[in-house]
Specification:
The protein is an all-alpha fold and 308 residues long. The protein has two domains: 80 residues; 218 residues, no CATH class. The protein has 16 helices and no strands. Helix 7 packs across helix 13.
């Protein structure tokens, strides 16, 4: 580590010590730091371009050094948390889809290795934030439990339309794996996105998704094509792709729900519960997000009934 990197690491670690960041998940801390740097560039430049820090550098050069250090620091915690999440997933659904016994631990390792590579891309990291949080907060388990209890629209779409004749627990794990691979859509994105977090959209067109899916199936040979398709297609608009897998539709909604999730937000007296409020707003804007309105309606009812 050269002197510039050492100074950048010290500066970033000081920013991360801000008590206001304690409430955020690891990738949201990264988002907050990036936003802080972008919003305060003019004020920070005179100090950071001084002899004490990075003399004679432009803001873009300074930002690049700071961002690189930020990613290294965040990755240290992120990859540990990701490995724990991947270890909690039961990969028996892979054997079910393959109709044969399969090296399940190797499937886990392949997902982990893939994520460590693709998370070098800013777009993939931004995309991953909601999916990672959704799996970490276990939003899938509580909603799938209610979906199977109700046996209404979403259950029908999972079992009769997508034909996932596997167990409820295997479906939960299938959706979690779909969420964690959702950012695979950025396999062939060119990068260079504006690093004002939030400017990146994951909605793509079918030909692009099909191209990525084919490439991922070549790279992730241990994983069933159904899983890769589910993950990649979660970046499509359901309004334009009515054959979109139900697991893809669920992952798309859960990822967006958790993208800016803050579990420490206090609910005002008389206000709607967080999930109920979010799903209600999402129903009004379902065309913008490309969501399945019937799926949103059922999730809204579940959230309302359980005060989530």
């Amino acid at each position: 580590m050269n002197s510039n990197q050492e100074k950048a690491v010290i500066f970033i670690k000081r920013l991360l010590m801000n008590p206001a960041l304690k409430q955020f998940e690891i990738l949201r801390k990264e988002e907050q730091i990036i936003n802080f740097l972008n919003m305060n560039a003019n004020n920070l430049l005179p100090t950071l371009s001084s002899d004490q820090f990075f003399p004679n550098m432009t803001w873009q050069q300074i930002f690049t050094i700071l961002y690189t250090s930020l990613v290294l620091i965040i990755n240290d915690s992120l990859f540990k948390e990701l490995e724990l999440l991947l270890n909690k997933i039961n990969y028996t659904f892979v054997s079910f889809l393959r109709q044969t016994n399969y090296p399940l631990s190797k499937c886990r390792d392949q997902i982990f290795d893939f994520e460590k590579k693709i998370l070098n891309k800013f777009e993939a990291r931004n995309s991953f934030r909601g999916s990672f949080t959704a799996v970490k907060l276990n939003i899938t388990d509580k909603y799938i439990e209610q979906i199977f209890r109700r046996r209404e629209y979403i259950h029908f779409e999972l079992i009769k339309v997508q034909r996932l004749k596997m167990s409820k627990e295997e479906i939960k794990d299938f959706i979690k794996a779909t969420l964690l691979l959702k950012n695979g859509i950025h396999l062939i994105t060119v990068g260079g996105a504006d690093m004002s977090v939030g400017n990146v959209t994951d909605i793509v067109q079918r030909p692009f998704a099909d191209k990525v899916s084919t490439m991922l199936q070549e790279q992730l040979r241990l994983l069933p094509p159904e899983l890769i398709s589910s993950a990649v297609n979660s970046n499509l608009s359901f309004l334009e792709n009515k054959d979109m897998e139900t697991t893809s539709r669920i992952a798309s909604v859960f990822s967006m729900r958790c993208k800016n999730f803050n579990e420490y937000n206090k609910i005002d007296r008389g206000a709607e519960s967080p999930d109920k409020s979010w799903f209600n707003i999402a129903r009004r804007n379902y065309k913008f997000y490309g969501f399945d309105i019937k799926l949103l309606d059922e999730l809204y009812k579940i959230a309302a009934e359980n005060n989530w």
